[in-house]
């Protein structure tokens, strides 16, 4: 390995460390992305008795076994992808941070990579916290298909983060990106089954959900949690969204 090749990951690691410390200094971001999903799982699981009873509409499972944990994992990733990540990048652009970095040996793309690494690590930590607390306090099982869960989680993060980069690319300022993120987030969460589980959706709505990034991501998480095989359609949808949004972000993103 050449000295330059060894320097690139070291530089990325240092930048990721700086970005991680900045993230931890933002209590609102930590709360909504990390603590809120786990707290909602416990609050809803303990406060709604029906969530701890077998539900025929869910194949005899309890809501707290699969549906609720899966949706809370999805909520964490979507919050990071459509709020935290794009807002941070747009603020950096507004303040001229990216423009100033372009005159130094540290390229702006390195900051983008560090942001992606930090958000991916935070998403994984939030997921681990949610699943662990659910298992210990509510008796929810860990993913019955752990490799499938890891695969769909990774692909879902790629798709959602790519969409977040598209938002950052086309938003002129932080106010716009926050409003656009919320406008995109809530319909996508609905289509994922956050408030109306997919088995209870009308057939037409479920078909629409299948081709949305959150619908495919959410159902993939539920399948892996329950030990079912992942559906090729949902994997293809996530890969397609990741590729399309990633290419769009690369073409549209402005450093200044």
UniProtKB/TrEMBL annotation:
Entry keyword annotation includes GTP-binding: no
Alphabetic keyword roster: Antibiotic resistance, Cell membrane, Membrane, Transmembrane, Transmembrane helix, Transport
Main location: membrane
Membrane topology summary: Multi-pass membrane protein
Pfam families named among the record's database cross-references: ABC2_membrane
Domain (ABC transmembrane type-2): residue spans on this chain: 28-256
Transmembrane segments: 28-51, 71-92, 112-137, 149-170, 177-196, 233-253
InterPro entries reported for this sequence: ABC-2_transporter, ABC2_TM, ABC2_TM_bact-type, ABC_2_transport
Localization annotation: Cell membrane; Membrane
Cleaved signal peptide residues: none
Record family assignment: Belongs to the ABC-2 integral membrane protein family.
Name of the protein in its database record: Transport permease protein
């Amino acid at each position: 390995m050449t000295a330059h090749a060894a320097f690139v990951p070291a530089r990325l690691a240092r930048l990721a460390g700086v970005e991680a410390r900045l993230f931890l200094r933002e209590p609102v971001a930590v709360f909504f992305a990390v603590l809120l999903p786990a707290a909602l799982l416990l609050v809803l699981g303990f406060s709604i008795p029906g969530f701890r009873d077998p539900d025929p509409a869910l194949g005899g499972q309890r809501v707290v076994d699969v549906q609720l944990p899966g949706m809370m994992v999805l909520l964490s990733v979507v919050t990071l992808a459509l709020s935290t990540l794009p807002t941070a990048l747009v603020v950096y652009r507004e303040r001229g941070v990216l423009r100033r970095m372009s005159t130094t040996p540290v390229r702006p793309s390195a900051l983008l990579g560090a942001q992606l690494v930090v958000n991916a690590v935070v998403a994984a930590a939030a997921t681990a916290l949610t699943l662990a607390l659910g298992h210990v306090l509510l008796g929810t099982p860990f993913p019955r298909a752990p490799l499938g869960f890891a695969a769909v989680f990774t692909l879902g993060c790629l798709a959602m983060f790519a969409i977040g980069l598209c938002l950052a690319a086309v938003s002129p300022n932080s106010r716009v990106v926050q409003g656009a993120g919320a406008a995109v987030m809530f319909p996508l969460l609905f289509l994922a089954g956050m408030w109306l589980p997919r088995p209870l959706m009308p057939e037409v709505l479920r078909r629409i959900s299948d081709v949305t990034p959150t619908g495919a991501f959410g159902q993939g998480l539920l399948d892996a949690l329950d030990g079912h095989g992942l559906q090729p359609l949902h994997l293809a949808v996530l890969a397609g969204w990741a590729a399309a949004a990633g290419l769009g972000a690369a073409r549209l993103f402005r450093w200044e």
